[in-house]
Protein 1
Amino acid sequence: MENHRELFLMQQIYGTLFSLANKVQIQGDKYFKSLTSRQFMTLLAIAHLSEDETTINNIAKKLGTTKQSVKQLIKIIEEKGYIVTVPSQKDRRAVNIKITESGKQVSLDCAGKALEFFADIFKDFTIEEMDILWSLLKKLYRFDGEEQDGFEENAGIELAEADQFKALKEFERQRNKSRNVREKNE
């Protein structure tokens, strides 16, 4: 029965997505020193918003999570001195979140480590496979009609070109190493 296969696949995809999200977060945390993966992604979300749009609601929307979850993350990151809250110029009831200089520095440090993590995660993927995966994930994200407010635009925190080049070279090294191991095993 085709319906059984369809139900089986939906269950397996859901379970795998759930487990994968947790695994990526746990493994990602091992690469960073000063932040968790969730804290780093929160700083990235802030950096991808214009300065007058960095409200709790907008950060939560960018991350695809709840305001309560973002409030907890903001509190922790603020205690570390990486962000400050400032009154919103647009809405007196809201606050905007601003990344401090030390927050920018720790974000740059983590961004470099994130590139190492990405090299490890995607070493067995071709560019075409990554393109397809991203397309399918965006399609899945909009199951409820809402488009993902992603991270495509440039952020206020950019890695130096030399660091990007170094990371791409490491990614290429990892991919070649993985390819050689696969070819040896075939």
Protein 2
Amino acid sequence: MQPPRHLPLIVLLLVASGAAGFGVYQWLAPGSTPPASTGAMAPNEKPMSPDEALGEKFDGLTDGASHALTDWHGKAMLVNFWATWCAPCRAEIPLLVKLQAQYAAQGFQVVGIATDETSEKDVKTYLKSMVVNYPMLMGNEDVGRLVAGFGGNLIGLPYTLVLDRDGRVLKTHAGELSPDEAQDLIRLALSAPGTPAPAVTQPAPSVVSVKSGTAAK
């Protein structure tokens, strides 16, 4: 029997989809409408160095201050790149909230970086319906270079970096994390050698509700 005339084209499309990987899945997921740019690094751009990536400043979406990943030096970090238009990203946030509460006392810190190509106001509007217990930062046009500086490739969302207590990348993960995958990454980060953050006597951190603008003690 003769193979279908369009079989080579179908195979080519499947191979191309495999190459794009999680990015293709993400962009076709229900509720996902990607903008023209997702934060990926342009071909003519140069990756940041790891030190530059750690020191890159972003605006905080919940406190209005500027932050760099060096602000959490001494903690094992899970840095999550997401966007409001990304359905798997939205589904992942409650898991990250749960993990932050579970492992914070062991020196673990989730940091979210929004990569929306619209405006900070739009992201804040989305977050008004949510309560988060970890810092949410607003990304900029350099997020692709930052990820590349850690050896990653921001070709789709969500995208996760796992750093040890000294800011060295341990693992990158493309796509939505399952609970088991997230637990494995956190255990890896917490067990890696590194300099623990100095003990500081201070009140317990507040959980910030962007919707109400109040902090629950």
